Amino acid sequence: MPYSRRQFVATTLGASGVALGQNKVVLNNGTRWNPGVVRHLLPAVSHERLLLKAGFLHPQTSPPILRVGSKRAVGVRTDSVGEFYSFHLAGLEPEHTYRLELLDSRGKALCEPWPISTFPGPQAQPKRVRLLVYTCAGGHPATRNPDTGGPYWVSLEARRKLLATGLAYQPDAVIAIGDHVYWDLRSPVGSLSLGNSPVARQLVGQFDRSQPAMGGENERKLKLVVTPQVCDLYGTLFRSTPVFFVQDDHDYFENDEATEQMVTFPPDDFMLRLARASQSLYYPEFLPDANRPLGLPSAGGADRMPGVGESFGTLRYGKLLEILMYDCRRHMSLKGPVGGFLPDSAEEWLMQRMTAQETHHVVNLPSTPIGWAAGKWGEWYPDLLQPNGKLGTANAKYWWQQGWRLQHDRLLQRASSMQRIPLFLSGDLHALAEGRIHRYGKLDFSRNPVVSVLTGPIGTGPKAWPSVWRGTPPQPPSGLEIEEGLKPLEKNGFSILDFTEDQMEAQFFSWKMDEPEQRLDDLKPFHRFTAKRRA
């Protein structure tokens, strides 16, 4: 049997004796780990590959080396000065715990070694897998609340405590669903408090949309925006836990808005460049999967590792679980009834995987929520907040596309027809919630109700809750019948999900800025629910 991560840390890293300075990180089990000159580490794994994104406190004059047992990967510089590197290794063994070492070109350690485990192979039969899932972890610490002058977002310290609590439950993987970055640049509403605010103009200045995102002043400004929201938030907390980052609207440096003044999506070229640059520098793309077509949009970029996906990804854990992750913003179309949040090829991939009988669970993870709405433009649903305070369609939503709902309906129909739990996990709406969808319009899902979970936001502050920003908390859209086990709760938090062969068990954790931060030192789940495969 391979060592667990805990055993590996206790027996190997505790005795490493690497002299790297005094900037140590205290782990939950009391041991100390020295990051040395490393500023952040975010790894992704499959059963046979590792992809690591690393940031350093100062530029590296030559590419660092990642040593994993007898294998080595030379870092690929992803910025202009050598502060950020990407490392890729293939040919790893499934279900194996590896010892990772980051070295400079002379072989000197840049940080202490650390462990990480690969996933089981596609034919393996694991009995359980645990996930930590959340959304909306971004938010620049310099952004101010215009009403109070205080912080706009949850402090980085409090966010790190939330993440550390989730890690204390020893998840096998972490999924962060969208809005890793908040710095809207032009959207008529969102930018006024974020990237176009007086604080933003003083701290960063204006991006030059006529110039490339990387290689000049725009790169320097990008780092000023994103480094505090990713490097300073995550640091090296997740170095031994595989991560999956799904992008959503704010990761393109805009809010999804549609007015006569501006329609923000699909992203223009500069928005796309900023989103791709952020992903390239800070967090991993999706590793190749044998059942995900290589030709899907946002795959096969010449500046990316062969086979990775940028917008569509897979978490495959043996024959137990397959999670299909999809960004609903990059490729959304404005084609009326034939449009969609996803291109046809991506929808076909989802349909094929829900039909396949290879795993006990197939889970959809769209960046845009299923089952609830708040009247924002870029939702699956046509509902807008009406004068009576309810969501409805009497007053139409400007530039909303019927094809978005039609695509939604097709996905839910296929999910409900599975012999599995038709589970959707999503974020975006700044809430924790869970429910079972029985009907939507003429569609009847009562034979196998669609289970939807809002996984909980990490960084949301007082001005960003839907009830404040949009005048309503998340609500079921008109015509949708949902049995709410937990009505949308506008609090910070996250979800811990355990999958076994026949069921999924969820635990929800919550906290809010107006509560004492001392609560974060001993946070316990406040809500649990179980979804079982139908007989």
Largest sheet: 8 strands, mixed
Helical content class: 10-25%
Look at the structure and give the CATH class of the largest domain. Alpha Beta
Q: What is the CA–CA distance across the termini?
A: 34 Å
Shape: globular
* Helix count from the secondary structure assignment: 8
Return the CATH architecture of the largest domain.
4-Layer Sandwich
Question: CATH homologous superfamily of the largest domain, by name?
Answer: Metallo-dependent phosphatases
Classify the secondary structure makeup into a structural class: alpha+beta
**Uncertain runs with pLDDT below 50, 5 residues or more?**
1-24, 26-30
Total discrete domains: 2
CATH topology of the largest domain: Purple Acid Phosphatase, chain A, domain 2
* Rg estimate, integer Å: 22 Å
Give a count of the beta strands, DSSP E runs of length 2 or more. 26
Mean pLDDT: 93
Q: Beta-strand percentage?
A: 25-35%
